[in-house]
Every structure is written in structure tokens, then in C-alpha cells.
Amino acid sequence: GGLAPTTFALGGCLPSDCTEEELASFVRSAGTEFSVQCDLVRPRGPAMGASATLEDTLGWGGVPVYYPNKIDFTAGAAATVLLCLALSLLVCAGTWVDLRREARRDAATAAPRARTGADGRGLEAAVPLTTQSPAELPPMTRTEAFLHHWSLLRNGRSLLRMRPKEANEFACMDAIRVFSMAQVILGHTFFYVVGSAGYANMEQFSPPHGLLGSFWFQIVPGCFYGVDSFFVMSGFLCAYGLQQKVFHRRENRTPVGFTAKYLQFGFMRWLRLIPAEMFCMALIVNVLPFLGTGILWNMEKPGGHHCYDAAGAGQCSRYWWVNLLFLQDLDKYTGKCMGHTWYLANDFQLYLTAPFFALAYGMDKRLGWGLLAIVFAVGVTIPVILTAQHEWVPEILAGATKGFDQRFYMKPWCRCPAFLVGIAAGWMWPSLKRLKGRPVTASGRVVSAVLSVLGVALCLVATFGRMAFFQCDLASCSHPETSPVPRFLQFLWGSLSIATWCVGLAIIMTLCFLKRFQPLAQGFMHLPLWQPIAKLSYSAYLIHTAILILDFCQRSSPVVFSPNAFFFSFVSFVVLSLLAAFFLYLL
């Protein structure tokens, strides 16, 4: 773990008869360790117009250039292109099938109307208008049913289909999904620059006087709670769904019944996540390299890597199977392939524990709550032990130099409190449903207001409380002895910061379900527009790193940070990620 080594790049123009080998030999003779690469940029022609005048006057000027792409077209790239073509054909065929069936249905509907008026009689002859429905179309054949799943009409309507309010009990979850997805992109908008183009003004972030030491900037590292929000929602839906649909039946609590349901539960989750992840992996590994251009894009880094590998390609050619088994959060495989999908491994592993909690709760509620309490206690104790063992400052940035990000941040045993908070909320919900509705008494309104403030306050404390870790220079902030935060509070933060955010979010969610959250905020979170956007959140999460890298790695110089540019970049990345997710959804 730790910060990546800094690469310093210099560029210059060479005579066309000077080879890369000659230049490399000259550099080595000077005793330097520079890696030499040539032919990263070529002129398209001589300077013209104002550039030619400038060259004649000063001896130098600009010429139009292009950047030769030397990336080999591999068998994987060919297979991915063929796969995309096959999917496109399926989409076209499925859409054609749907259009043809709808045309036949419209024709069948129009035919009785034409026959009704064909004999010259109408209302004046006292002939009643027919209300007979047209004959139904024959059921789809197996081929038509298969192609129907790829239809643009079907998938587009599915995306835009809105659940009515009375059938959308957990409507605010759609908004939370969108906000959480935006949090992930916001955090990566800042951090992915470091691993790609780099910042030209990195000193702007140096604490205590830089941005890391400021209050408002804590929103950016606070975005790491976005994945915890997903864990809370996943735990809630697992607990509530399993209890209502599965383990309330005695036969599902028997060894045979539980085993059958458990295997089905795990397989269906795997089947829901894997196809989109594998397809996005293929696009990022095999297609993304051909979509960009520029010196930074084509330049080979030490070890044979390229800037665009930061999108997640890494060593996917060797370790793709790790993602297939959701093991990419293990130390041996962390960051090898689609590094940002460590969350999916955590989520899948935690998801597989949900039936055991549900089984215990179904057998005896006291047993379920007792098991949940024990595991939660373990989940908030492990971070304390690891923080002491590795002498961490338990904050994602301050602890990065000692591997905090890989050994703590990406581990399910450190993130499980979020999932467990969701399970607790799911178990409590059936008994709270009787309170649903706006409070009508003064005491009810006071309780709702206090709980609303408490939920928001807990989330704010978890977000902005990390500011205390950056009231010194970064070197001092990275060591527990010199950190401005007392060691006891460091342990407390590592243990409870995630749980604090998640409890606050669970309170807000529950109040929204009960329609007792603050009216304006609740109305905003219940807007129907969140429903189609929420359906795109998973695909947007998978593909957004490619969108970021397409920008960062095609720049001609390191990124110069400014709040305005950062905000506009973030907004554009969210929009483009959702647009890419939209096309993935249609497949």
C-alpha cells in the first residue's frame, strides 16, 4: 500500500533521422535513468498562416500534429467488437419483432372498427358501438420471446416505467441510490487524477492550510461513505425481503429447505451482477485503449503500463476470474482488475451472510437480534485491533501511506457494520409501519423533527469530523503519535465513523418510509424522476472510471485544480456516466 511513485516526464522535438535507440544511448551515457520513447507525436504538415509568420520571425511556431496510436489490435479486442456486433444484431432483431407484433395488434384493433361502419349504419340506426376487444395475438414463439428481451421498445419502456406511489413503499431509496452513485463519482473525480494525469498544483491540497484542512472540502473524502449507503440499502432489502417472502415459512427453515433457498439466493445474486461487470470489463480492457489519443495516452509507463490502465484494466487478462468469483477484495488480488469493483466483492460476501441472520430471526427474534449484536460488536472491534496493530491513522488519506486503504477500507469485516445496520432497520420496519403517515399531534411532530435532525447530524458528523485529522502537515498527520487527534479518538473514529453515517442514513430512510421526514426534503427524495436514474446506477458505477480516464489521460498537461473546474468536471462525468449506463441498460 501507500502512495504511488511520481513519474516526471519531459518532451522535445528531434530530427527525423535521430532514432529512439540513439537517444536512449545518449541518455544512458549521462548516467540518468530516464525511459526514452519517441514517435509519440508527428507533424501533419508545415506551419501555415499566423504560425508560419511566427516561425519566420522568431524561428519557432506551431504546426498541426497527430498522435500515432501504437496499440496492437488483440484477439480480445476482436472478440469484444464481435460481441458488440452480435448484441447490436440482437437488439435490432428484438426491436423488429416487437414493432411487427405491435403493428399486427394495431391492425387487429382497427379491423372491428372498420367493419362497424362499413354497412352504412351508425348512431342514427340505433346500432350500439361495439366494446368487443380485438382477438389477442398468438403467444410468442421461443425465438420471439428470446429476442423480445433485447428489444429497445421493451427495455426503454422498462427504464421509464414508474411505480405508482401506493406501490412504491421505499421510494426514497431511488434518490439515495442516485446520490450514492454521485458520491462515488465525486470522490473518484478527485482521486483518479492522481493515478493518471496528476495535479499540477498538488500543494493546494496540503494541510493544514490547503484544501484538505478546510471544512467544505471534507465533502470529497466523505464521498467514500457512498458505498456504505449501498450496504445499508442492501442489508435492509435482504432482511425485509427474506423475512416477508422466505423464512416466515417453516419448511424454509429446515436444513433441506434452507440449503435449497440459500443456493438459489446466492446464484440469483451472482447472475444479476456478473454479466454487466464482465461486459464492462471487456470494454475497458479491449476497447477503451482505442478510444483515446495524445502523448499521455500513448506513452508507456515503467512496467509496461499506460495511463488508460487506471480505468481498471490493470492485469485483467490474468485475473478476470477473480472478479468472476468476487474475490477482488483479497490482499493477493486487490487492484489487479477493475479495482473499483472491490465493493461488489464486499457486497456479494456480505449478501451471502444475510440468510443466516434471517434464519436465526425466523426461528426466534431474540436469537436473531443476539447474533446481529455479536457480529456488529465484532465489526466495530476489528478496526480498533487493526489500527493498533498497523499503527494506522484510521482515515483514508492520512492512513494511505501504511496501506489503510487496502487492509481496512476494502475489507468486508471492516465494512460489515453498514450492512448490519441495514438488516436491523429491515427487521424493525414491520413493527414501525403502523406509525406511517404525517404526525397529527404536537408530540408526534416534535419526535419526527428531533429524529430528522439527529439523522442528518450523524451524517454530517461522520462527513466533517475528519477535518480534525488534517490540522497539521501531511507527514505529521499520517503518524498516530504526531496526529492532532488523540489516539483514543483515533480508535473511536476507526471503530464508529462508518456506523455513525449508516445509523444516520437508516434514521433518514425510515422516516421517509413513514412519511415523517422533513416535508421539503422528503418530497424531493420521493420525486418520480429518481426511479429511471436509479435503475442506471449499477451500470454507471461500473463504467464511470472509463469516462474519467478518457478525460484525464487525453490532457496535454497535468490537471490544474480549481473548485469551479472540479465542479463542472464532476457534473459532466455524472451525465456521461449515466448516458453510457443508458446504452448498457438497453442491452
Keywords:
disordered N terminus, 1% strand, mainly alpha, 587 residues
Q: Could you tell me the strand content as a percent range?
A: under 5%
The residue-averaged pLDDT reads 86
Helix content: 55-70%
Distance between the termini: 38 Å
- Poorly predicted runs: 1-6, 120-132
Oligomer: single chain
Structural class designation: mainly alpha
Main beta sheet: 2 strands, antiparallel
Summarize this entry quickly:
With 587 residues, this protein is an all-alpha fold. It contains 21 helices and 2 strands.
Produce the secondary structure layout.
Elements: H1 20-29, E1 42-43, H2 49-58, E2 65-66, H3 75-116, H4 142-148, H5 152-160, H6 172-194, H7 225-245, H8 255-287, H9 295-298, H10 316-324, H11 342-363, H12 365-390, H13 404-409, H14 412-432, H15 442-464, H16 474-477, H17 487-513, H18 519-525, H19 530-535, H20 537-552, H21 563-586
Antiparallel strand pairs: 1-2
Helix pairs in contact: 3-4, 3-8, 6-7, 6-20, 6-21, 7-11, 7-14, 7-17, 8-10, 8-11, 8-20, 11-12, 11-14, 12-14, 12-17, 14-17, 15-17, 20-21
Give a structural overview.
With 587 residues, the chain is mainly alpha-helical. The chain is 60% helix and 1% strand. The chain is built from 21 helices and two strands. Strands 1-2 form a two-stranded antiparallel sheet. Helix 3 (75-116) packs across helix 4 and helix 11 packs antiparallel against helix 12 (365-390). The chain is globular and about 85 Å long. It starts with 19 loop residues before the first helix and ends with a helix.
